[in-house]
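Can't paste images in this forum, so I'm doing it all in text. The chain is below; anyone willing to post the predicted structure tokens underneath?
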Amino acid sequence: MTTIHAIVFEDTNKVGFGTFTLPEMNDNQMLVKTHYTFVSSGTETRVLGGHYGASDKFPLIPGYAAVGEVVQIGVNVKGYRVGDFLSYNPQTGPKGIYSQWGGQASMHLVGGEDKPVLLPKGADPLNYVVSQVAAISLRGVMAAQPQRDECAVVIGQGVIGAFSAGLLASQGCRVIAVDLSESRLNRSLSYGVHACVQASDPDALERILAYCDGGANIVIEASGSSQGVTLAHKLIRKTPNVFRDPKTYYVNPISGIVGHWPRIVYQGTYIEKLSLDPRADLNSEGVLLLMPGDRGNEDRLNAVEAIRTRMIDPRVYIDRVVPYTEAASAYEQLRLHPNDVFSVVFDWIS
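Text version of the structure:
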């Protein structure tokens, strides 16, 4: 039996720690020692607040973004070696406590269902701890199929929006970042965005459109708020009828428009119920509405490659690296002062 330490959400907005025992490792599993975990701040603080079905599951172990080192391998495991570094989705939690999703722990049992991603040889695990969350943004950006010189607006500059903005900029898009936080907007300049707009400005919509020349080709809504969704619907580039002169009514040939629709990508997670009236809210002949699901293994592999090739500079997105023993204060900062703390990585080895 293996004894582990874990961060525990004991109750609503109450963070503690616990010592637990992993089940016996079977022949199809690996024992992995955690080096770093990345806090998916929006998701995890909402779980801490009792959302996503967590309210009746406390106490629980949160988190899903971990990188660690293989220290033991079952006899049926092929393709992996002791000493390999992995990014993985833990599925087998310790005994006696609920896991949602159990990543914030010192060791894990990892099997095929955990879909481990082997990191490049010689990789610094700290660089790749962001790959799980970056893969979510990457999936959304790839779904939008950005083209060089297109205009893209990213609403919300938390970690999902920040990765989205950086990836769009790397594809040659002109990117406008929108957020309520001046510190997050200033940070977004390091991702290569073209311009920043303060969401609370009374003329924020007009300011964004001034950068877009009539609207955006791509709008990524990553704020997770109904206000962000409403703004996204107003920002897409219009494909209206054209009046050649006051006496002539002319409609663009549909053949020249199909395949060139503006795209909205809903990347946030929404507690509120959202509604959409296409004619009233979008005012365009065609809009692609994209709602990427969870990231898959291919997305995670692509994110690892984006980090390896420096398309994503992970250190730009890592704000604080702290010992896991400081988890209670770290989550409190993320929950109560999100504008002051962008992201947190827990160190499990120092």
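The CA atoms of residues 31 and 109 lie 5 Å apart. The two ends are 24 Å apart (CA to CA).
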